[in-house]
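Whether sequence alone determines local backbone shape is best considered at the level of individual chains. Part of our work consisted of pairing the sequence of a single chain with a tokenised description of its backbone. This step matters because it turns folding into a mapping between discrete strings. For completeness, the protein is quoted in full, as a sequence line and a line of structure tokens:

_____
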Amino acid sequence: MSGLSLLLLSRCLYSSAKKNVQALQFLE
């Protein structure tokens, strides 16, 4: 159970980080 929630959390953080990187590249 905790492993599954950790996987979902890491995926959420990864997708949000990817959006932040894309936003920074867009500003440049």
